[in-house]
Amino acid sequence: MATIQIQENEQHPDVALVASARGGDVHAFETLVSKYDRQIFRIAQHITQNREDAQDVVQDAFLKAYEKLDQFQGNSKFYTWLVRIAVNESLMRLRKRRTGKMVSIDDDIETEEGSVPRDLADWSPNPEQNYSQAELAEILRKTIQGLPHGFRIVFVLRDVDGLSTEETAETLGLSVPAVKSRLLRARLQLRERLSRYFRKKKAGEK
Amino acid sequence: MTCSEFLALLDELIDDDVSAQTRAQLNEHLQGCEHCEVTLSTTRKTIEIYRSHEVYELPNSVRDRLHAAIMARCKNGC
Residue B54: its chain A contacts at CB < 8 A? Predict the structure, then answer.
């Protein structure tokens, strides 16, 4: 009995919020919106690369989640379920922008770039401190935008958002080995590209 | 261990998902390979920088507007 009680006490706080929201408590749902809207916006922006679309995705993803709360099984975390909705909405928006051309998470991955490190120079210590916040944000944005979106989204979910490999795979409908291979290549490509900005300068180099 | 073998296990090393024995082999390779040492440290730094800097801020004004729109529709049963 004691074990069961501990498990109940340790349930994810979202479980109770989802249950209340299902029962018609809109404030419980509002708490979920406030908790995750920034992350959903970030994911949507990374996929669509368009501010207005990303804002629309935030709105549509939460509304869709609210409509479908009854279908939420509770065998995955609410957040990963919500992310799955947001990824699909984002891909739909992207498809619209590309005038109906099919867009999937498998697009644009025919590249070997960055799978072997080429720039082997070490970086300055705390290289980000050589740039203003605005410059750094621009560098980080430009760099990650250059990745194929199938790599970019895996990196964002896994490394920025902190989802596990299994959750990322489930969210994107990919196999675990596919997530692993994309993550490695995403990390190496970003490293390679950031190296241009962060590598130690040789004497006399500007 | 060769550099390619090291690279194939880079993510597992970064994510702390290796056995003690494999870790010892990876560390042994690192001792004698400056290139892999740099690859490891700069890849770690890449992840750390992206994790600690928000690339896409959602301004509070936009956030408030989105909340209001979402909640208005939820209250009306969507």
Answer: 42, 137
Tell me the ipTM for this assembly. 0.91
What residue type is B3 in one-letter code? C
- Report d(CA A201, CA A34) in Å as an integer: 43
User: Is the model's pLDDT at B18 over the cut of 80?
Assistant: yes
A191–B39 CB contact, under 8 Å: yes
Give the residue from A11, A32, A34 showing the smallest Cα distance to A22: A32
- Identify the closest residue of chain A to B53 by CA–CA distance: A137
Q: Taking CB atoms and an 8 Å limit, are A195 and B42 in contact across chains? A: yes
Contact between chains at A144 and B50 (C-beta distance less than 8 A): yes
Helix (H, G, I), strand (E, B) or coil at A123: strand
- Record: contact A59-B66, CB cut-off 8 A: yes
- B49 has a chain A CB within 8 A of its CB: yes
A119, A193 contact by CB (below 8 A): no
| Closest Cα in chain B to A128 | B49
CB count in 10 Å sphere of residue A121: 12
Q: Give a three-class secondary structure readout of chain B.
A: CCHHHHHHCHHHHHCCCCCHHHHHHHHHHHHHCHHHHHHHHHHHHHHHHHHHCCCCCCCHHHHHHHHHHHHHHHHCCC
> What tens-digit pLDDT sequence spans chain A (206 residues)?
444 444 555 678 898 999 999 988 999 999 999 999 999 999 999 999 999 999 999 999 999 999 999 888 777 789 999 999 999 999 999 888 876 565 666 655 555 555 778 888 899 888 999 999 999 999 999 999 999 888 999 999 999 999 999 999 999 999 999 999 999 999 999 999 999 999 987 666 65
Under an 8 A CB cutoff, do B42 and A116 touch? no
* CA dist., res. A44 & res. A28, Å (int): 23
